[in-house]
Structure formats: C-alpha cells, structure tokens
Amino acid sequence: MNLKKIYEQTEIVISFEVFPPKDDANGEKLEKLMSELEVLRRYHPSLVSVTYGAGGSTRGKSEEIVCRVKNELKITPMPHFTCVSTSRETIKNYLQAMETAGVENILALRGDLPKDGTICHDFLHASDLIEFIKQESSLSVAAAGYPEGHAEADSLQKDIEYLKLKTDKGADVIYTQLFFENEKYFQFVEKCTHAGISVPIVPGILPVTGYKQLAKMTSLCRVSIPEKFLSALEKHKDDSDYVKKCGIDFAMNQCRELIESGLPGLHFYTLNKSFAVSEIIESVCSSQAI
Fold it and tell me: Over the stretch 249-258, which tens digit does the pLDDT of each residue have?
C-alpha cells in the first residue's frame, strides 16, 4: 500500500523505524532485530521504515531487511535513501531494484555530508532526489521535517520554505525528527499549513531508555528537552531502571496529547528494540483501532 492510501485511513497509523545492525558478521544481530519486529507486528503497523547508511554504507543490509519485512512479516516497508554522495545512475539502479522487489514507498533524504568532504554533485538536496524519484519511478515518496529546524538551517522559517519545496516536488508525507515538546510540533504543523503544505505531518517519537542514548541523539540534531524531564534524568542517570520508566512514561504522555489533537499517525524510533514501544502502544493506543 502506498503512502497516500495509508494516510487516508481514519484510524491512527502506527509505524516504526529500524536500522541495519552494525558489526554483525554472523548475522545474530539481524535475527534479533527480526525477532523484535515480530513482537511489534502484533500492533498492526502500517509500515516499517529502514534506514540507509551514509553513502550507501549499509545498502545491502538495508535491502535485506526491507525484503524480509515485506515477505516474511507481511508489513509494508519503506526504505530510506540518501543522495548527497550518490550518483544519478546508482540512484536509478536502486529505484529499479526496489520496484522489482515490490516496494511502493521510499523516504528521500539528503543524508549527512561526508566527513572527508567528497560529494557527488548529481544531487545536493533532498528536493532534487524527490523530483528524480517521481520522474524515474512510481514510488510514493516521504520527506523529513524538523519541528525545531534542521541543524544546518538559518531559521525554522527558512527550513519550512525548503520543506514546501519537497512537497511541491512530490513528497506525499512528512515524518518529523524526534522532539520532546509537543507544542513545538503543534507550532510546526501550524507554520507548515500557513506555508501551503497540505500533506500529513507525522510526529516522530523517541522513547528515552538510556541517559547516554539521549545525550547522543540530542547532540546530532536540534531538539530541546523540557527542564523537568531533563533534570529527572540527570539526577538518576546511573539508575537504568528509573531512566527507562521515566522515559517511557514521558513518551506515553506525549502520545496521549498528540492523539487527542487528531494527528495522522505516530512514527516510533525504536532503536531496534520492542519493549518501550510495546508498553506505550498498549497503554496509550489500546482503545484505538490499530
């Protein structure tokens, strides 16, 4: 099912993001990931997105997971694809491979700039990639949005102008970067609507399950953390059980408020684990048709 049809549903759309395991020569981590997804399958996700390493560094593993999600778990997959260091011909071949595999959706991203400074100039922006995908394939395309602005953006307003360009080029859905203040998401949606963006804007939720994990994630992107939440985590950062409970409870409250606002869906950044997301869905979405 393509993204347009998925988000035409009246019930809340649940989706998950996973990534190809690193340092997995014997495949044990991949099988563990598939077991975690088997657990999450009982919540009837409408799709599972699979990340794609910078410059295609995890392409083979990503494709394997995409195919297994589709063929073994019978869940709609959505591979990611980055373009900043990828040639036009490589992208064209990848799109053909995905369509041959029966994939209908793709998340188009610029990707992180290579640390060595080598950039393929065929595509410099996600909007360029989106335009090319729509020209060369029948894939439905998703784009990334940043409630507090991309880390490299001059301002949130400029970032939204660029996001509008992505939708003008053919993006059907926007998935947001993680955030911890719902008001940031609500304001972002309002600003996007005012800018003429009419596609679904799906909030990305990261259940915090470790203090170091939080520090790493927030160092990579522009995201604010409520002082009360951050203070509680810092005070008990060496108590892993407390941090997990605090993080999951916080995400539960986030999701409850978001659902009440009438949002199109919830997109969970699982970090390849099922336990936190399972608790949240069972507590928050038990009364919803998912």
Answer: 999 999 999 9
Q: Could you tell me the CATH number of the domain that includes residue 111?
A: 3.20.20.220
Output the DSSP codes for 215-235: HHHHHHS-----HHHHHHHHH
Q: Is residue 289 part of a domain?
A: no
- The set of residues, in sequence order, having a beta carbon less than 8 Å from that of 45 and lying 6+ positions away, is 14, 15, 16, 75
Domain range spanning residue 199? 3-284
101 DSSP 8-state letter: T
Q: How many domains does the chain have?
A: 1
Q: What amino acid positions are annotated as catalytic residues?
A: 17
pTM above 0.85, yes or no: yes
pLDDT tens digit string along 95-105? Answer: 999 999 999 99
Judge whether 20 lies within some domain: yes
In a domain, 254, yes or no: yes
Alpha-carbon gap, residue 105 to 45, rounded angstroms? 15
